[in-house]
């Protein structure tokens, strides 16, 4: 299914919502936390307490989106979003696809953060 304005892939949507993510110019003052749609108050608080990690969270989400699109490239559902954003309505529906997206995202974000911590790139790794 080709990408249309109403059916944008996750990584295109994240690039448009998070221009600093696309350019690599990340802010370390917590401003990026306000740019992530769909976060709960608690998630925004965690994000604000660890601003140095947000770029790696975004990196992991982008990696998950790319992998999801690669794995489902020839399928009817191919990891596309009906509108730009991370908080997608269909991810609130209990389905195998939703479970896959959450598992893949969790693993990719964990991997990106662990790699950054191991390299000493995140100051508040413990």
Explain this structure to me?
The structure is a single chain. The chain has 126 residues and is mainly alpha-helical. The protein has one domain. The protein is 54% helix and 3% strand. It has six helices and two strands, in the order βαααααβα. The chain has helices at residues 10-17, 19-23, 31-35, 41-49, 54-71, 96-118, and strands spanning 8-9, 80-81. The protein has a two-stranded antiparallel sheet with strand order 1-2. The longest helix has 23 residues, at 96-118. It starts with 7 loop residues before the first strand and ends in an 8-residue tail after the last helix. It is found in: Secreted, Extracellular space, Extracellular matrix. This is Protein Wnt. Ligand for members of the frizzled family of seven transmembrane receptors. It holds the Pfam family wnt. Belongs to the Wnt family.
């Amino acid at each position: 299914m080709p990408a249309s304005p109403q059916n944008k892939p996750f990584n295109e949507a994240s690039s448009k919502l998070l221009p600093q993510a696309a350019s690599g110019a990340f802010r370390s003052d917590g401003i990026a936390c306000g740019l992530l749609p769909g976060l709960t108050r608690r998630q925004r608080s965690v994000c604000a307490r660890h601003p140095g990690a947000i770029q790696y969270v975004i990196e992991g989400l982008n990696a998950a989106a790319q992998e999801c699109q690669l794995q489902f490239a020839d399928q009817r559902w191919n990891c596309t979003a009906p509108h730009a954003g991370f908080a997608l309505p269909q991810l609130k529906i209990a389905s195998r696809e939703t479970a896959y997206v959450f598992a893949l995202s969790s693993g990719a974000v964990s991997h990106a953060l662990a790699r950054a911590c191991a390299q000493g790139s995140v100051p508040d790794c413990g």
